[in-house]
Amino acid sequence: MQIAILEPKDFSQKALNELSSIGFVEKYNNENLDEFLFNKEVLFIRLSYRIDRDFLNKLNKINYICTPTTGLNHIDMEECNKRKIKVISLEGEYDFLTSIRATPEHTFGLVLSLLRNYKKAFLSNSNYHWDRERCKGFELFGSSVGIIGFGRVGKILSKYFNAFNTKIFFFDVNDSIEGTDIALKLSSIEELIEKCDIVILSSSYDKNNDSFFNKSYIDLLHNKYFINTARGELINEDYLLKKIKENFFKGVALDVIRNEQVKNNLKELIHLTDTQNLIITPHISGATFSSMQRTEEFIVNKLLKI
After folding, report:
1. DSSP structure string for 196-246
2. For position 288, what pLDDT does the model report?
């Protein structure tokens, strides 16, 4: 079996050893991509490539695409299904994922960073102003936090915020998800935004909820903090960008943007970090050494079982 690792940096050695037991493993090192993909039957990816029809045309013998992610918006699933390519991912692996805490930890860190003005406060050669007045911020204690999407990440976040004595609200379209002793379920996103100082987007993405967080929701966020570590495709990003330019928010943190692998708004967003309380991180919420190695090993085990 011909196995390709498209993004091999720091790939789990344990996972590589297990893959070697079922076939020949080759790591991509920036040579000709078409030649590298030719005749490969299994492809391991992360998030740097958009796996669309054109990309799939390079894979003449592919049977399995393995992605250690919960979201699949970087893969054209309809095209994979047409070609009878099996996509192996973390989608639905709830028991395993409860011990993967990288995304909620990063989300929590972004909230603290916005409230405490860490972007200004971290001193360096390019920021040498010992000026505590310009860095004054706000505390989490007594704040109201709203979580849109109360799945694995949302539930873990609620426990983190509870430790800081915040009021926690959430909204989820799934009627079977009920409130907890620390988080109150609300009946609409509008009600959540109205009640909360800090709004976190933590929803799962599929093509049916593309851009569901639209102009009407964004318009309710005046002078509030907004954080998205879910998927950029969930938001009307052009309108969000317009409102950031207008200094509309108290603070915004984005770990994800729309169309991360192709033409996007990244340069314009980064430019705005000079003048706004805006933090952009390059989709690192799930990217810790431990979480990535453990998820790679988990995906390899799923492949081996198949």
Report:
1. -SEEEE-----GGGTT-B-HHHHGGGTTSEEEE-S-GGGB-HHHHHHHHHT
2. 97
Helix (H, G, I), strand (E, B) or coil at 115: helix
pTM of the model: 0.93
Helix ranges, 70-117 (H): 77-82, 94-97, 102-115
CA distance 261 to 253: 19
Fill in the DSSP letter of residue 139: -
| Ordered DSSP codes for 54-75 | HHHTT-SS--EEE---S--TTB
> What are 215-253's pLDDT values in tens digits?
999 999 999 999 999 999 999 999 999 999 999 999 999
pLDDT above 90: residue 207: no
